Amino acid sequence: MRTRFILFFCLIMMFGRVEAQQTEKLYLSGTGNDNTVNWDFLCTEGMNAGKWTTIPVPSNWELQGFGKYNYGFNKEANKGREQGLYKYKFTVPTAWKNQKINIVFEGSMTDTEVKINGKLAGDVHQGSFYVFRYDISKLLISGENLLEVKVSKHSANQSVNEAERKADFWIFGGIFRPVYLESLPQTHIDRIKIDAKANGIFTANVSTSGGADKINVELVDAKGKKFGSDFSTKITANSTSIEQEFKNPALWSSEFPNLYTATISLIKNGKTIHQISKKIGFRTVEVKERDGVYVNGVKMKFKGVNRHSFYPTSGRTTSKKISIADVELMKEMNMNAVRMSHYPPDGHFLDVCDSLGLFVMDELAGWHGTYDTPTGTKLMKEMMVNDENHPSIIFWANGNEGGHNRELDHLFAEEDIQKRPLIHPWEVFNGFETTHYREFNYGIGNYEHGHNILMPTEFLHGMWDGGHGAGIEDYWNAMWKNPQSAGGFLWDFADQAVVRTDKNGELDTDGNHGPDGIVGPYHEKEGSFFTIKEVWSPVFVEKREMTAGFDGGFLLENRYAFTNLNQCTFEWKLKKLKAGDDAAFKAGKADAPNIKPFEKGKLQVNLPTDWRSFDVLYLTAKDFYGKELFTWSFPITLPTADAAKIVVKTASSKVTLKEDAKVYQVSANGIDLTFDKISGLLQKAKNAKGVVPFSNGPILQEGVNNFKNFTAKTDGENLVISSTYDKKESWNTLQWTVYPSGWLKMEVKYFPAEYFTTFVGLNFSYPESEIKSVEYKGNGPYRVWKNRMKGQQFGIWKKDYNDSATGEPAWQYPEFKGYYSNMYWCEFVGKSQSFKVVTDREDVFLRLFTPKKSKDTEYDNMSPTFPNGDISFMNGISAIGTKTQKPETTGPMGMKNIYYDFDKDPSRALDMTLYFDFSTSSLRGGTTKQSN
């Protein structure tokens, strides 16, 4: 590997020397976790300590089987104090003779001592996430050189430990980002600061060494076509400014990330000595006090998320491929911003944000502690030098949640030519109110009565299945409507589960510290992913019903900042849903309406005349690049129509009744049903194959089972068993109807026991060990909570049983157990028996068993409560909270259900009607899969 690298770069020197004014690189390591180079290595403590072997570079040594794993909250004094000793031999290309040669480390955790041929390259570098370099020109020899690096996981500088390592994230050690040599001529460019404004004014401040005559600037667009004319200026000092105005540049934004390449050349005696090329974007960021953040003159709402540099198998060592995958998933959720939590990212991540379009908040580390001022000054400048020209960066953040060294604040404005706004996350600072995890009502009070720009840099903490999608609709509605809100950033993007090489490859989230993501550790999509995707869609579709008078018109709101909806595409599909088979459909496109940003208008879909013969209408919006924004579904047929088609009432057989003092025993068409004569509950259902293990219902949840005084009578060919209504003692009523076909109808009219209820509905018993799968018609495929209803599609869904819990191994989604909305019917496929349940009522929730409860904090805020029993049919379900908030503080949708009618008037009772098919024809069998 070492020889290949040297030969490759020597060939570049030999054949490209005339064009070699660009800074040249020779990688000593690989470029990421998918491209590494082995170095000699010894770890002083922990796993595999005390012996020389090899380790891939870049990497974190824990993930390679060395040292000790520890999470930031771990207080053991001896945790995370190992050192790593590295050795690597390299040869410098002969073509680099008389050049200035630096060795560059893009990231090393934490204190890093570098020697070349036994001599120190410079002071020990303290701080993990920053690009640092040493001039090693005088330390190199011809032929083979020896690089020795000593990395101390625990810093000798306590302020570095306070800022970086006593934190709510995994603590790693090692050279985790690339290492390379760079070659520059003695006369060279040291630093370039670029400011390209939306008005076309391009300004660069160029620092040089070695003496030269002038600086020349050339711009080319993304297609390689020259943009404007080259321009030059004489060099009068070590730092020279140059300015030029360009006409009508294509502006950079998250929606249209137009990039140019600026090549700055250093010229001496008419010859180009050195060149540096930078990707830039023309854009202007402006903060208007007590108003908002403007990009290119447009007021922004940031739909953001916090993101760690992390991958399960490699810790903080990532790759450009991972950066692309992360950004694409964020864009898929219709996000337009990302916060670097809580340190600067890999350079390739910022490159991807530049090219794909995400606004970035770049952050100097400081979780709750701070760097001391000398150390922080050095690290802040390293961050600025490396990151300053990325157009995606529109904010700087000085630390997090109290980790703000205020003595560093002035440096951001002094060092940044663009004067981007500085944020103190979790503080009211610099005109921004960024407080984390405020309850909904507190936040709304600030929205309505405060004076600062509101932009929480963390909100809706997504531990396990709480937060993120749960509550976001309420928060976003408030944020969208308030002119002083600039949006906010969710916590956080992906579950921080690390592969434990000391525990047979187990994925470890350190209990409830790490499972905070919208996606799993390997980017598995959770239910909240799709809720966010819908809520944050820049095309907002107003709710409407598919009534007979529907004319194909949808009212839209354009929530883009820079895109007219006529730049999007709209597709529709009518579908007839059929269980187990491909459904018939018709599809087409609708003309995209001319709706400017922040305006409303109408989309006209020209549907065929037979559109009402279909079950559902899907409407898909795609962006300028052809990416799906969201697909909305609109049921056309209602449950009553489905029930009329599915439920069979008549048959050649008759209904027979036997009764004694305790039970009614009813038979019809090979189905035997047993009802308790006192309570009215279903005790047993039996067919030719045997007993169907579904029984003991309906049991009212948050209501009283006061069904009394049952009677049995015939109604034509049907048998009716019903309780007697009494306002004082039996105000809840239950009626069973057995049809000659063997189908069973249940009608319950009931009143909740309290005004405020967590949930209301009916429970039945069914052994979880018996279930194999379900197939149902309704919204899916993910489960819902009362405060996370969006993101689902109406269809027919097949789901195999699993016992997955969100954020826990094996990150299997969609989960099986939980609530499902808008059920029309469901077929329960058991291991031995199956049965079907149908409703003719709208808005029925299906509850499948009780998910295991993940370990909450001591405050038990998530409160993922479920009814009694095993399978339920609900009129109202529970919400879920977050790590920091109870469900009811996440907004109105998180509050309990409210029912006011307690005069026990049966005309005002809640109504649940279900039909049951216990015949052997219900059995489908076989392995099922998710579909719609």
Relevant terms:
932 residues; mainly beta; Jelly Rolls; Immunoglobulin-like; TIM Barrel; 5 domains; seven-stranded parallel beta sheet; 10 helices; 11% helix
CATH fold name of the largest domain? Beta-galactosidase, Chain A, domain 5
Strand order of the largest sheet: 50-51-52-53-64-60-59-56-57
In total, the number of domains comes to: 5
Shape: elongated
Biggest β-sheet strands, sense, barrel: 9 strands, antiparallel
Q: Overall mean pLDDT score?
A: 93
State the distance separating the first and last CA atoms.
Answer: 50 Å
CATH architecture of the largest domain: Distorted Sandwich
Q: Radius of gyration from the CA trace?
A: 33 Å
Helix content, binned percent: 10-25%
Label the structural class: mainly beta
Instruction: Tell me the total number of β-strands.
Output: 64
Low-confidence stretches: 1-20, 923-932
The number of distinct helices, counting runs of at least 4 residues, comes to 10
Strand content: 35-45%
The CATH class name of the largest domain reads Mainly Beta
